[in-house]
Amino acid sequence: MVTDKQVLDALRGVTHPENKRNLVELGMVREVSVEDKKATLTLVLPFMDAPIKDDLVHAVEERVTGLDTALQVKVNLAEMSQQERAAFMTASEGGPRPAQSASRVAHVIAVLSGKGGVGKSSVAALLAVTLRRQGKRVGVLDADITGPSIPKMFGLHQPPPTGPMGILPARTETGIEVMSINLLLPSEDEAVVWRGPLISKVIKQFWADVVWGDLDYLIVDLPPGTSDASLTVMQSIPLSGIVLVTSPQDLAGMVVRKAAHMAQRLGAPILGLVENMSYAVCPKCGVQIEVFGPSQAMQTATQLGVTLSGRLPLDPEFARLCDAGKVEKYAAESFEPIAKQVVERVPPEKTMPVFPGR
Length: 358
What we know:
By secondary structure, the chain is an alpha/beta fold. It folds into 2 domains: 4-80, Fe-S cluster assembly (FSCA) (GMP Synthetase, Chain A, domain 3), CATH 3.30.300; 90-345, P-loop containing nucleotide triphosphate hydrolases (Rossmann fold, 3-Layer(aba) Sandwich), CATH 3.40.50.300. The chain is 32% helix and 21% strand. The protein contains 11 helices and 15 strands. It has helices spanning 4-11, 53-65, 82-92, 120-133, 150-154, 196-208, 228-236, 250-265, 297-304, 316-323, 336-345, and strands at residues 29-35, 38-45, 72-79, 104-112, 138-142, 162-163, 166-167, 170-171, 177-179, 214-221, 241-246, 270-275, 280-281, 288-289, 308-311. The strands form 4 sheets. An 8-stranded mixed beta sheet has the order 8-9-5-10-4-11-12-15, with helices on both faces. Strands 1-2-3 form a 3-stranded mixed beta sheet, with helices on one face. A two-stranded antiparallel sheet has the order 6-7. Strand 11 (241-246), helix 8 and strand 12 form a beta-alpha-beta unit. Mean pLDDT is 86; it is low at 352-358.
């Protein structure tokens, strides 16, 4: 009689046509059961609408039937979670790199805006600074390859050092680890004129080939939009969640809803929505002035079914410190409750370590 183990072992002989590794190694086989000449198993796909889905099902049925022609085979289908998909992508590319053995990241939080110019990098920097002040070990991965601003905000201008295991992130005055393409360019004013596949490759290298060490939080500053770069992060990195950033204009709200729908489609948890540049405070009378019109934050959050984490004002002092590379000196009292709420919504279970199996 065919056993569960025999079925599982047989499926090690089914190779994924795109990455040449077997389905069991890739974590695509679950819940194998054989009873009364009927074999049942679940085939887990990165996406339910994967174009090779039918080919994989046929290959699985053929392989299992080869154990016993009288065996009935039922293949159920399921879709991977965002973290499972990230593990799948890592395995597809040949497993962990040398730098990954020296890294262990507890939680990865991506900051996404959908639209440019709403202060996404500002929110990413403030989140990193606030968490660092709480004594957390924090890193920032600048995934905005064509518009990097993180190094300038933190006053970083020198190339990052290298070690025997790979590239070491640059370190800010307070000990935040940072990696950005701007740290690797001959001049920080040089343009990065690359197509999507190359940008995606660099983002993967920033995750896999940088020795991040032990971090409590890695903040990923995503580029605006829903194109290759954001897709790469959501498919290749095990995210604990996403923070959405918008501004008061209805146009910004419309675009951030697109970004939110992408995140939801890919199974990435949305930790909250932050409305930036919500108002300015008159320095003489203290009145709040809605420079860009009435806030749309609550309406947008309600439409998306997410939490409104908070609203941030326009602050000339923040802009001045960012321009001077001294964002870590910003008081950031208005951001502390936002960071607290974001962290509280991070799933209690840690993401998989950078190096699986450690």
